[in-house]
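Supplementary Text 2. Reproducibility record for the structural model of the 126-residue chain.

All settings were left at their defaults, and a single model was retained for analysis rather than an ensemble. We include the record here because the model underlies the residue-level annotations in Supplementary Table 4.
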Amino acid sequence: QVQLVESGGGLVEAGGSLRLSCAASGRTFSSYTMGWFRQAPGKEREFVAVIRWSDSSTYYAGSVKGRFTISRDNTKNIVYLQMNSLKPEDTAVYYCAAQIRNRIWIPLHVSMYDSWGQGTQVTVSS
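Retained model, structure tokens:
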């Protein structure tokens, strides 16, 4: 299993930006499709964005498309989530996840990922 550690969360005003990072252990990071999810209090964990291992194709949830950008640096074993034009409804704990044992595309569901980070809190004030 790969270990994932998120960072970069915090408190920001509506309209502001944050960049989340997810650092992965291991030497096979480039072979993992990586996703970002979020979970607000009292709600289920929901898909945010994903970047494919083979060609860095991306896919976004409709609620963040045009505002968030997922990217990866395989030389540093890091996946990023650039979040712009943040809204109060973006407030949640954000998790990164690695898809290791399957190649399903587009992996929208929690069950399609094998390793998870501990999460980082993002709070957007109005």
